[in-house]
Specification:
The structure is a homotetramer.
Chain A: H1 19-42, H2 49-56, H3 60-66, H4 70-93, H5 99-116, H6 118-127, H7 133-156, H8 163-184, H9 191-205
Helix pairs in contact in A: 1-2, 1-4, 1-6, 2-3, 4-5, 4-6, 4-7, 5-7, 5-9, 6-8, 7-8, 8-9
Chain D binds a DNA duplex (21 and 21 nucleotides) through α1, α2 and α3.
DNA sequence: GATGAATGAGGGTTCATTCAT
DNA sequence: CATGAATGAACCCTCATTCAT
């Protein structure tokens, strides 16, 4: 699913962490960061390549050295969040045994990543909608993958269908909305607290035995 | 909140239900219906005025006799859903006494409207994101208004803050996601059943005493 | 071969010579004329849509109401010359009996059209090369078609292969070069006389019995 | 006519055939060869500096050490063919006495070079058209020079004006077209045979006494 | 000399909106 | 009121050329 679609890998013959590679990788990261920031603020359609380039401190042409197109850049952001989430999930789940513990690990992994990457969360959860057919499709594939993961856990925790599948999707939607709520006025809301509230709500909603723990 | 922005009431000399007025109101409705259908299918940015006009069986210029802009047309659809929802809510709530009954009335009113107006639901809940700054803002204002309404009921049902406010928003987000899930493949999913599942999930999540009733 | 590729036919429901149709057809003709003029002067790549639009006295967007793309506009010019040539050939040949008379009719038909449409000749014979793959291919298809026609006549006149086929192509190339010579300095050269010289040269070169007649 | 425009002689401190100079001259030749190959295949506009550099096994920047611009590189190819042709002509003519023998020597010199340098022939005769104003002009100057040479011979052979001048140009055009015909499908056509056919055709067309000899 | 990442002007194209008919 | 041809700003993207290393 994460082909090198978004590659246009800066043409360096060396792949090691040599100075050369680092320099151009830095550019790519800078562009990605700039894109993330502008996309988060403006959304997909209101964001022009020129703005991204400007935010990254380079020229328009430079953008196209690192990304084949605007869409591919956006896609890279989607994948970035997905990968971060997946890594976090795998890391946390490995330390757990009981189904509920695994589920909780997954959920909290997701929300922790969202907390750490709030701009990214906005981009993916809010602005991917209405971007481009291919991007929407890509995001949807990911969401389905992820929802299936959660649903699987829910089933193992004794939550019956269709509560499991629908509940998994609903949970994603609820989170997205909360991120949106927070994004509207970051100073006014405490994203961490809100996310915790949602987790607890769903935990109870799914009828799981224990209580969702307070965040550390 | 619903200024006459979206009215663009065709300058008819007579204000009564004269033939003239009726005719142009029909045109407006036809355009609105066309827009609803095309927006639901294509989303905001992939929809051109030409498509709307064609679907409505009139010329491009005519569109602008009834709506000042593409955005205002979309906005009219948002408001259409909002008004339908609000009317349904008021109607149902008036017959209820207990706080929980009132809350249930509100929630089911919303979902019933979504069911009746599935295209509209797609337009508003899915495609409003990423459309235009003003539209997003408008939708957000409405969502806040509505969430406050639900939160109020939740509080009266004994659900404490921040579960009430956050929960209300989460509920909206969950619904939107379920509509999205359904929209991806209408034949595959039963929107009514999924919505009911979500309702039940939240009802339990909020810790409300009784059970969410099966849909009639 | 001449599909409606270059259509984007101005959306008029009526096909008759009504006023409406005439107006937009005039625009199309004006654009075609402008394109012909600018392409003839600047060549394919140095010509921008903006220049064409300006020369036609309209905006850039208007160009795209009549042609789907720059390439299609150019293609329309190629086809315009081709059709003019083919019509002229058919008209003249029908009045002839002997093979040589038919051949002479064809050749003089071509050169007469080139004379009448000197800009078009420049565009097609000089600037089509190096334009775009698809256009070059299109032109080449036409040239082959046409060369085969001439070669056929040559065979019937007793000119053996490969003189016939190669000679037909060579004749086209020679004409193109003469048009080029003339185009470099229209005042300095008499295209008609030069073309006549070429005709006579080839007539003799093919070993045909009679002499190429002086132009009327 | 052949200013040092196209020299861009790499600033080597030593002017003799020192190792340094030889090395960089090799580079220049490699680039020229690469350019010739790519230009012949792709044409002027579809060829990028990157492709040339890659084909030559060096970096883009290196290209600009040897040529001031893409156009100048192309120009060097034009001149390369011109020089080859001129050298061949001078060599062959010196051995001839009769005007017709001299003419024949010139013509066959040209075609022999075209045969030896088929890629170059494609580049100059086919792809120079539509490249750039300056290049077209340059090529045209050369063509005129060359046509004047041939015309001079024709006059001395008794071919009267305007047959001589026009005929000379026509001959160039015919050759170019034949090269084009061949270039479209090298396997299908025998360039040597076609060129011979053209020579014979023109020889007869000019009304020259003897017959064009079969190629050795 | 050699490199290749960086540049940015310029190209083709789209589409919401207007206005003369 | 209705029309739909006309508009032109704005977009994404390319590529010849430069220059710091």
């Amino acid at each position: 699913m994460f082909s090198d679609h978004n590659a246009a890998s800066p043409p360096s013959r060396e792949r090691e962490g040599s100075a050369d590679t680092k320099v151009t990788q830095e550019r790519r990261q800078a562009l990605l960061a700039a894109a993330q920031s502008v996309f988060a603020r403006e959304g997909y359609h209101r964001t022009g390549i020129r703005q991204i380039a400007e935010a990254a401190g380079c020229a328009v042409g430079t953008f196209y050295l690192y990304f084949p197109s605007k869409g591919d850049c956006f896609r890279a952001l989607i994948d970035k969040l997905y990968q971060a989430v997946m890594e976090a999930i795998e890391k946390r789940r490995s330390a757990q045994g009981a189904p509920e513990a695994k589920l909780a690990a997954s959920l909290s992994a997701v929300t922790d990543v969202l907390m750490t990457e709030q701009d990214l969360a906005r981009v993916v959860l809010i602005h991917a909608r209405g971007s481009e057919l291919a991007l929407e499709e890509h995001l949807w594939t990911i969401q389905k993958t992820f929802a299936r993961l959660v649903a699987q856990d829910l089933l193992e925790c004794g939550v019956p269908e269709p509560s499991a599948t629908v509940g998994a999707h609903a949970w994603v939607g609820a989170l997205a909305e909360v991120v949106n709520l927070w994004a509207r006025d970051p100073q006014l809301h405490d994203l961490r607290a809100m996310v915790h509230t949602v987790q607890a709500l769903f935990w109870r909603g799914w009828g799981l035995p224990s209580t969702w723990p307070n965040p550390a």
